[in-house]
Amino acid sequence: MHSQETEPIRTEGEGWTGGDDAQSAPPLLPQPTRTVPAPAGASAVAPGPADELAPDLVRRLRPLLAAVSPSGGIALAVIRGGERTVSCRGYADRAAERPVRADTRFELGSVTKTFTALLLADMVARGEVRYDDPIDRYLPAGSVPGYPHERPITLIHLATHTSGLPRLPGGLVPAAVPRWFTDPYATFSAAHLLRALPRTPVRGTPGAQVRYSNLGTGLLGLVLANAAGQRYQDLLRSRICGPLGLIDTSCGTGGEEVTSYRRGRNLPSFRIPALPGAAALRSTADDMLRYLQAHLAVDVVPIPERGGAATSLRAALKDVCLPRVARRRSGPRICLTWDQRQLAEGELFYSAGSTRTCSTFAGFDRTAQVGLVAMANTHPSSRRKFTQAAYQALLGLADEQR
Predict the structure, then answer these.
(1) How far apart are the C-alpha atoms of 397 and 365, rounded to whole Å?
(2) Residue 269: active-site member
(3) What is the pLDDT of residues 33-71, one digit of tens each?
(4) Class of the 4-16+29-401 domain?
């Protein structure tokens, strides 16, 4: 990604490619569609058919469905006003003829970053960290990137891709080469990362330019874990996934997961032990529907009240959508890892990610009260097409609801 100069925005409180024509892919094997209840306080769920998407939704999603390989599968979570729908099509594993289901786990790739950002906002709301804290405060001595200390890298820089850190840490690519087409980052540990950080160059002044950085967001996960004295995955489970009822969302493997093949061989599950906050999460359509609901119905989504958790998490859900950085020339504004696109009425928030196995898109519009998550085990050549189709589908859903 090319760097772009930025303008800070004042706020209150301060994948990791093109394909064939969409029309050329045959329809995927349909699986049951179901509607699920809206949270208490939201409008009632509209009735819908038990075995297929509503016709108007099929028309809207047709290019997205066509962007998935005929041998693959897709899981969708859709919110339109009071209607919540989960729909699954195709195969989680074509060789075993195992269909995609609502509880099939997909690798989220860089959509993981939105969870890390929500964790940051929650810890800020609890008073445990501050957005302007320098990263030095939470890293071992001698494990800090080289940069001008008169303008230190802060937590907000990591969450907005303005730290000046490179896309990946030094030493990761050489370690990944022997496994490049299978599991490239599995052997690069947190210890490797800490040794690499002092040799990691910082380009420019932190906060001055947008440079997309998996390292930056992954480092944010490590910093938050250090601040809390817990592993990233345990912290995320206790602060985010548990309270929101995301029972099948975690960094580890397990459960019914999608598979993907390269030259007839099953690709292993994606692992990135050094930077779990950047791309390590797996989730299901059921869980991602709940995740969307939490962002769209912040004040009414059920959250346990234990120890003030509901208050801090509701504040965090609002805070992650405040714009922090505006590109001077063009493009979306950057919130806490979410991209924000200004529309004639309202704003679109979205994020996309990919791994060797999966492509994922998540987005929502609070004004129109629509949201879409699309997860597929797509071929690498079709990922750009898949992401663009998902974005256009969300944009169309938002236009229809206004």
Answers:
(1) 9
(2) no
(3) 554 444 444 332 222 333 367 889 999 999 999 999 888
(4) alpha beta
